[in-house]
Automatic annotation (TrEMBL):
Belongs to the aldolase LacD family. Signal peptide: none annotated. It comes from the Bacteria. Pfam families: DeoC. This is Tagatose 1,6-diphosphate aldolase. One of its GO terms (biological process) is 6-sulfoquinovose(1-) catabolic process. PANTHER family: SULFOFRUCTOSEPHOSPHATE ALDOLASE (PTHR39340). Keywords: Lyase. GO terms for molecular function: 6-deoxy-6-sulfofructose-1-phosphate aldolase activity.
Amino acid sequence: MVALDQRPPLIAAIAKAKSIAPEAVTFADMLLVKRLLVKALGKDASSMLLDPNFAIPAAIDILPSKTGLVVTLEDHRFEETPGGRKSRAIDNWSVEKIRRIGGDAVKVLAWYRPDASEDVIAHQQAFVRAVGAECRRYDIPYVLELLVYPFPASAAHTTDYVEAPDKKADLVIESVREFAKPEYGVDLFKLEAPLPAASLPAMDGSSAAKIAASAFEEIGNICRQAGIPWVLLSGGATPVQFHRVLSYSYAAGAQGFLAGRSIWLDAVQDHFPDERAVLTALSEDGRKRLRDLTALTREKADPWRGDFRTSDFTFEGDFAARYA
């Protein structure tokens, strides 16, 4: 699956490509890039993740009918407090509207740290829980993305969507453990690697590789026990780094990827605003990256299969009564 809902990261990429300040990036710039991404990559993606701010108005009309539509709910403008980040939904946007527009799933990014302040943790948990209830109400799958972030007082603090080089595995693992609880109603996790992609060792059987693998295994065990499949986000990792992340993840039982920048960032940064050059780069390099990741996934990932046993139903109305 390909993520195209990026807002601040794409603004930064366009700004870099045009040698302008991020504030100078226009609405038209964003719409054009999102449309180019769907045009070039849509046929090769099993699903695409679109946002209602830019991607849907830009390209909903050219999204291939065979390509699933996952839609973002959360606003990229989060509230930064000394004790952590608080998420909210995009103004005038809802699970109901995503269902009505023909979305196949709802995606929410929740910034989360188990060591955040009590009020921040309560806010984030309530936000995720409320969306889960709405997804159940409207009978639409719920994709939850979790990201660890630096506190404002940290020397490494940034509001950019970049992976912290000193990220701690336990923060990622405990976040997954919390939201794997049934009360949140999560159907699919979109997760970051528990360790920084740039520092992951090769899977060569070394002690460092075994330590890294154990962190991925812990996530896999949590998801397995909860019955929730998981896929990986790229978080801006290079193609080589992301390939390694996926190799560790698939060995631990992950089901796939929902990635963006690792697939298309270079085409935008290196060639925009030359539309023809961007499309050429996406059609050649971008599609190759996507196809390589797809091939790895088909070879190594755990296929997800729903439990549709019919032998458990013993009388008329049994299925209807149990279907939630």
